[in-house]
Design goal:
With 729 residues, the chain is of the alpha+beta class. Helices cover 19% and strands 30% of the residues. The chain contains 13 helices and 38 strands. The longest helix is centred in the C-terminal third of the chain and has 19 residues. It is globular and about 85 Å long.
């Protein structure tokens, strides 16, 4: 709900559990007055204290009043060059060379429903699902209008934000920085939580107290990256899963980003998040418009768990455009770790036949099916079937898979090209490459210039021909290197600072065309695993390969960190063979299955090499996944333990919305002789319900299971696992 006090220029945004407020003051500076636990409608600007501070300049309008300075005021969208020396939200270069931005409140607009952003991903909602407020700020001297967009999804505690910048002058303006979000706090005694890592170990939680100065995470790799995720949290120092206030901020963007927090000299703090200013400079011609990516905020007064569950619900209902929404999503098998590049049509059909016999429903053909692709040094860019490997093409192969009762999927990497390819030989100028410099390579490949429409059209036409040739229901869209040599032959020297962002817009454009033309096809995103796991990609690819590391124990850490913002149904998770390819670890098949079930479930192994006993277990896993599907994909998610703190076991739980069912998953870690006896306290149950456990025995009350707990069984061996299914009587 959005409440307006027009006389005092106060804007209050209420969600189910929180309140957000801003106010235009006597100088029409838009101040941020409050964000936190829900309170009644009132003017909260009294929380802001003013006082003279040396070396904190005063705006001209303040006259002789030295108590008022932008350097100490909490602002809704911070400016630069006019007295606020903290992290700016916006910076532009005017024709005379100045970099000053002085924004003042002009007006507002209120409307039902959710705003949309042209060419960019965004949450969606109809009139009765969201409300939108647009606040207009203007730098009159520069003739630049800044539109701040806010949409409120009340039941999800979700507030989305976006920014449009309009050049209303007659000369070009160069936009050097344009953040999507600014959050000022009248305190700095907060912890900052980020989700960091590297290829094969993404989104590991990193927590530490704010300190004086600027702390930041971000990416200049051209993608949101394996190293730092565009989701951050600020929270009370003692906040945990169930207590304390915490703020989550997610940027719906898949390219270079920065999240910077500055603790000021007076112990206030400011979070600014958006496109990374590195090598970013956007020319706004007269009348031109620039739109910054969307950011989505959730504040939880009751710890991390409540915040995560609100994000999960909002993402599932208002961000994912999943062809399987409300329907069962098939279990898949991918041939990559079974064959790599070395396969024939008969070999693929053999794998599919083994899979179909075990209840698996979707066969995905990975890398190596196109061009002259026998290793990773050739073929990328030539999206035509290799008829030596697949005689008769997909027109011959896919019906053989379909006859087994399975759907068919395909792997592509549209953004890349090998120099050993027909495409590169014909169009060497279509890659990102700085004139006069030899290019850098990653995985033996170069990056196509997706900022160019002609490049995207060529790639799309090739992919479309493949999709038209056979009954294809799934695409795995991969991207296996970071961007270097970022220069486009299609732009003049003065506009090369637009290439990184135009590249991302180009990726979104091609994905949107696929979505519109083939709405029935499920697209799974991938970037060397989880190198582009962000809200922007989820809008186009409703599930993302969580990591190239398929080891069950490593995945506990990866999926734990991912779960703080992103729902289980978005995490591609497969059972692979042991010893694990990435780290050599041997874990039981049951453990691998339970870990992978908390995701978009599948297998990535040579099923023909499995023993009869293993095949029986796989068949049971598939049946179990189907049985628990609604719980796993639509249940409320609870982290019962942290794999970072307790090496003895990791546990998580999914509870149905009506609290009548729950599934508890437990993976035991390092085992010792004569281990201690432990009880695991569950969460999210109805204390008054009586729950039967695993279909046997005397029922126990939800109150007992949550307050006293459930005894963890003593199991020997390496990394054993078990599940507890609870059903209300």
């Amino acid at each position: 709900m959005i409440v307006l006090d027009q006389e005092n220029k106060i804007f209050t945004l209420h969600t189910l559990n929180t309140t957000y407020q801003m106010k235009a003051d006597q100088y029409n500076v838009l101040l941020h007055t409050y964000y936190g636990t829900k309170i009644d409608n009132c003017d909260l600007s009294g929380l802001i204290q003013c006082g003279g501070r040396s070396f904190s300049p005063n705006p001209n309008e303040a006259g002789s009043n030295r108590d008022y300075s932008l350097d100490i005021m909490p602002q809704e969208y911070s400016t630069c060059g006019v007295g606020d020396f903290r992290v700016p939200s916006i910076e532009f270069e005017l024709p005379e060379g100045s970099h000053t931005a002085d924004l003042r409140y002009e007006s507002y607009r209120l409307e039902k429903g959710k705003y949309a952003l042209e060419g960019l991903p965004a949450f969606f909602g109809i009139e009765d699902e969201a409300e939108t407020l647009v606040v207009y700020l203007k730098d009159s001297a520069a003739q630049v209008l800044v539109e701040l967009y806010y949409s409120v999804f009340e039941t999800f505690d979700l507030i989305t934000r976006a920014v449009r910048v309009v050049n209303q002058g007659s000369e070009p303006v160069r936009l050097c920085r344009c953040a999507s979000l600014c959050l000022d706090f009248l305190r700095s005694d907060l912890d900052m939580i980020t989700f960091n890592g590297h290829h094969l170990m993404e989104r590991c939680l990193d927590r530490g107290p704010l300190r004086s100065g600027i702390q930041s995470v971000g990416s200049v790799r051209g993608t949101s990256s394996h190293q730092h995720n565009p989701f951050v949290m600020l929270c009370d120092r003692d906040a945990d899963e169930d207590t304390g206030i915490c703020y989550g901020v997610m940027l719906l963007y898949s390219g270079n980003f920065e999240a910077a927090v500055e603790c000021s000299q007076y112990e206030n703090s400011r979070l600014v998040m958006g496109i990374h200013p590195y090598h970013f400079c956007w020319t706004l011609e007269a009348g031109g418009v620039f739109t910054a990516p969307e950011a989505a905020m959730v504040c939880s007064p009751n710890g991390f768990g409540q915040m995560s569950r609100q994000y999960h619900r909002a993402i599932c209902e208002h961000l994912l455009r999943d062809p399987y929404h409300g329907k069962y999503k098939p279990v898949l098998v991918n041939n990559w770790e079974a064959t790599y590049f070395d396969f024939t049509a008969d070999r693929l059909v053999d794998i599919a036949r083994e899979a179909a016999a075990l209840g698996i429903e979707l066969f995905v053909m990975d890398d190596g099916w196109f061009g002259t692709r026998n290793d990773d040094n050739s073929g990328l860019g030539d999206w035509k079937v290799n008829l030596e490997k697949l005689p008769g093409g997909l027109e011959a192969l896919v019906p053989r898979i379909r006859e087994l009762g399975m759907k068919f999927g395909i792997w592509i990497e549209p953004e890349m090209v090998n120099e050993d390819s027909d495409l590169y030989r014909a169009h060497p100028d279509w890659v990102l490459q700085v004139p006069g410099r030899a290019p850098s390579r990653g995985r033996g490949q170069l990056v196509l210039d997706f900022s160019r429409r002609d490049v995207r059209d060529y790639i799309y036409d090739q992919i479309r021909a493949v999709l038209m040739s056979a009954d294809i229901s799934y695409i795995k869209w991969d991207m296996n290197r970071s961007l270097t040599d970022v220069w486009s032959a299609s732009l003049p020297a003065g506009r090369q600072g637009e290439v990184y962002h135009r590249y991302v817009l180009g990726v979104y454009d091609l994905l949107e065309r696929l979505h519109c033309d083939y709405p029935h096809i499920l697209i799974e995103g991938c970037c060397g695993g989880g190198g582009r796991f962000d809200g922007g990609m989820l809008y186009y690819t409703p599930q993302i390969w969580c990591s190239d590391d398929t080891d069950a124990i490593d995945r506990l850490h990866i999926q734990y960190g991912t779960s703080f913002c992103y729902p289980v149904c978005t995490m591609g998770a497969h059972v692979s063979a042991v010893p694990n390819e990435q780290n050599g670890r041997i874990t039981p098949l049951k453990t691998r299955g339970i870990t992978a079930m908390s995701g978009a479930f599948g297998y990535e192994m040579d099923l023909g090499k499995c023993t009869a006993e293993e095949k029986t277990e796989i068949r049971c896993q598939v049946e179990q996944y189907k049985t628990y599907y609604d719980l796993l994909h639509h249940g409320d998610y609870y982290r019962l333990t942290s794999p970072l703190k307790d090496s003895s076991y990791t546990a998580w739980e999914q509870v149905s919305p009506d609290q009548r069912e729950a599934l508890v998953n437990v993976i035991l870690g390092t085992t010792h002789a004569a281990p201690p006896f432990r009880c695991l306290r569950l969460k999210g149950l109805n204390p008054a319900f009586q729950y039967q456990i695993n279909g046997t025995g005397s029922p126990q009350s939800g109150e007992v299971l949550m307050k006293a707990g459930y005894p963890v069984p003593q199991i020997q061996g390496d990394y054993p696992a078990f599940q507890i299914y609870l059903k209300a009587m």
